[in-house]
Amino acid sequence: MKKFLKIIISSLLVSALMIGVGTVAFAEEDTSNKLTVISSNVAGLPIPSKFDKDGKVVPKTQKIMGEMLNNSGIDIICVQEDFQYHAILAAQMKNYPYTTYTSGGVPVGDGLNIFSKYPIYNIKRVEWEAYNGILDAANDGLTPKGFLKCTVDFNGVLVDVYDTHLDANGSLADCAAKKAQLEQLKAYINENSKEMPVIITGDMNIAMHCDINAEFYPVMIENGGFKDAWSEYCNDGVYFTSRLSPEVNAEYEARFGGNYWGRWDSVERVVYRSSSNVELTPTDFRYEDYNNRDGHGVVTDHSVMICEMEVATTDYVAPAIDLNKEKRELFGHKLVRTVKLTSRCIYRILTDLIAKIKSGEITIK
Description:
disordered N terminus; single chain; six-stranded mixed sheet
């Protein structure tokens, strides 16, 4: 409830929609068959520093995050929680000529954006059909969270890349929402990327060794045909299918230097699937902590995940699909969407508030 109030109050003080940056028409010459990807939750929620648990000044941290990501040398950067201060973050990303336009701030944007050194086409944003939490459970229903899809032209090889942000927390209701979101994502990919090599990344809010009820393994790996990069590269192809015992968990903590968050089997993931003529293989996977660098203090509550993929082709012929550049959203459409989603947010808040008052969860004195 407190987090929700902070976000809404802060959102009223800043613009709900920021202007995104566009794409350019020229790709860099590169014959590499190694494609590198970053997933970074940039923690761009519009929370005033006095209400933030780490005292972050968000406009400042977005500038710092942008500078560090821009200097990372990574090919494709997928960010989450990129809301009201997108323009600040994007202004630092001078090494990335191909980018998505922002969908806006809280409560109208999904917080997802992609910065790429390679051309990106066919941008599509899809909202989750299921979620858990309005005034509680991490307030996931306050924004249209979901996934962002694009097609990357990697030296003539087309790869579909998905940036995702699933529900937070680990209650049974949260995990049920995550499972439904995974099922929705898988169904969408099977329909819209069925002949394509696919890379999915983002803040999935799932650690396989403890979020068992989200059913990540049966949905995505066992029945989806995907592979998880951390499990394949860092864990010798071993997948967690049940909760770890305290003894085994302690062994992993000793092996990787501490708690799983940002170190091993963390919520920042890469999931991938090869196609009939494009083989994807992780050749590096690691987490990096961008906090407390160069005296900057805490800039995000997540580690940055970096994955290198070998892209090997056999008799490759690019699929005959239209490649369309993203167009800036028309003002009229943006206005209608803003009114619609803001109204929906208010309706959800009031509905949840009334339900909690009736149930006795919230009492008015």
